[in-house]
Write a structure and sequence with these properties.
Blueprint (H helix, E strand, L loop, with lengths): L3 E3 L2 E3 L4 H10 L2 E4 H6 L1 H9 L4 E5 L2 E6 L2 H16 L7
Parallel strand pairs: 3-4
Antiparallel strand pairs: 1-2, 4-5
């Protein structure tokens, strides 16, 4: 772990495992043209748990999410209609 002075601030040491966990949950952006050329790979990454934002000219056009995220979103929609709170699995 390192302490570095950055301008007037002192950066705090960070656990690399926490960083990896954060990046794993963040969506990755891929241009639609690149995704089209590598569709099988993009689908495999999404199925493995990655969230992928598809962009065109730097603007998000669509998002690919894993099935467990879709199931959770659908539960949220159903529970919102019925007035109950959804549980994450």
């Amino acid at each position: 772990m390192f302490w570095r002075a950055s301008g007037d601030f002192l950066t705090v040491p960070v656990d690399p495992g926490a960083i990896d966990a954060t990046f794993a949950s963040m969506a990755q952006e891929i241009a639609t043209a690149l995704a089209r050329k590598n569709l099988a790979r993009v689908v495999r990454r999404t199925a493995a748990g990655s969230r992928i934002k598809l962009t065109r000219y730097g603007k998000i056009q669509a998002v690919l999410i894993p099935e467990h995220d879709l199931v959770f979103l659908e539960q949220c929609e159903r529970s919102k209609r019925s007035g109950r709170r959804a549980k994450r699995s």
